[in-house]
């Protein structure tokens, strides 16, 4: 049987039964760990990447080319089906087309375009949005820009936490009509919200986190609501930041790592992640001959 490409795998899981988790990755090592524990698809998040790789808050300071290079590095280290956060496409419709082209060339399996306005207007309270009409222009431009028909284009609608459901439904229906492959509404949490979204579009839905109600929890609840994919929160990244802070704080205070030594991954596990044996074998085969 022919092996599915990463993009075909992404599409298959997105269209399959139940709800599939999309872990958030931000660099090569987090991607390697994600692959090592058995995930086949993941999200390259804009906000976590900005923090982890560049030390910036999530206010649009990372450029498209920097993000494309990061995706290329991550995909080279651990080829998985990556949904890449393309923010608002980094500009107008022409910018969106270049963004899709660059992210596709970098190895993305899916590209997500949102309807926020960037950069945010100075002094604006919360997010500001482009019109529904402009968002549709960008999504159609994104669809036209892809070379591989297996590349997934996701329309992201962020209005739910700022406006009423009616406006969100209007946008979801419009984005679906543009021909995108999936819809992402990150603020949706309740059964009623998911039901309204499910009635508004027949496209795969993407959610954030593992919300629950009294009758079902986590993935079971999302599956009942017809959600195809759910993005993990930033918790794995925050856990890593906290562990680093605690270990270095202990070192600063005591001059040793103490109990943190036992909490570190083994060198053998790190070598496994990095494929050290493969490189050692190559060194032995390609080493310089003796004079």
What string, H for helix and E for strand, traces the elements in order?
HEEHEHHEHEHEHEHEHEHHH
Count of extended strands: 9
Helix content: 40-55%
Unreliable runs: none
Q: What can be said about the biggest beta sheet?
A: 9 strands, parallel
Cα-atom radius of gyration:
21 Å
Structural class: alpha/beta
Number of domains: 2
CATH superfamily of the largest domain: Phosphoenolpyruvate-binding domains
**Which CATH architecture of the largest domain would you pick?**
Alpha-Beta Barrel
Mean pLDDT across residues: 93
Calculate the terminal CA-CA distance, rounded to whole Å.
48 Å
Look up the CATH topology of the largest domain.
Answer: TIM Barrel
Give descriptors for this structure:
globular, 9 strands, 12 helices, 291 residues, nine-stranded parallel β-sheet, TIM Barrel
Question: How would you portray this structure in words?
Answer:
- The chain contains 12 helices and 9 strands.
- It folds into 2 domains: 6-233, Alpha-Beta Barrel (TIM Barrel); 241-286, no CATH class.
- Helix 2 (28-36) packs parallel to helix 4 (64-77) and helix 7 (165-178) runs parallel beside helix 8.
- It is of the alpha/beta class and 291 residues long.
């Amino acid at each position: 049987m022919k092996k599915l490409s990463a993009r075909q795998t992404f599409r298959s899981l997105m269209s399959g039964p139940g709800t599939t988790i999309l872990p958030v990755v931000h660099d090569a090592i987090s991607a390697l760990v994600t692959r090592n524990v058995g995930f086949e698809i993941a999200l390259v998040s804009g906000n976590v990447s900005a923090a982890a790789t560049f030390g910036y808050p999530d206010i649009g300071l990372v450029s498209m080319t920097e993000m494309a290079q990061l995706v290329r590095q991550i995909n080279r280290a651990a080829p998985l089906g990556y949904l890449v956060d393309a923010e608002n496409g980094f500009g107008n419709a022409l910018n969106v087309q270049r963004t899709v082209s660059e992210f596709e060339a970098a190895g993305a399996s899916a590209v997500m375009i949102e309807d926020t306005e960037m950069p945010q207007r100075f002094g604006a309270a919360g997010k500001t949005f482009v019109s529904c009409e402009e968002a549709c222009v960008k999504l159609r431009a994104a669809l036209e820009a892809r070379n591989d028909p297996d590349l997934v284009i996701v329309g992201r609608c962020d209005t739910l936490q700022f406006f009423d459901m009616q406006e969100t439904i209007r946008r979801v229906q419009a984005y679906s009509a543009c021909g995108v492959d999936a819809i992402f509404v990150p603020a949706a949490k309740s059964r009623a919200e998911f039901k309204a979204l499910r009635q508004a579009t027949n496209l795969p839905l993407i959610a954030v986190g593992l919300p629950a109600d009294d009758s079902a929890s986590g993935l079971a609840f999302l599956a009942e609501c017809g959600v195809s994919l759910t993005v993990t929160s930033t918790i794995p990244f925050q856990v890593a930041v906290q562990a680093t802070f605690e270990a270095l704080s202990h070192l600063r205070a005591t001059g040793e790592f103490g109990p943190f030594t036992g909490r570190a991954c083994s060198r053998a596990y790190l070598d496994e992640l990095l494929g050290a044996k493969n490189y050692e074998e190559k060194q032995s085969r390609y080493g310089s001959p003796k004079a």
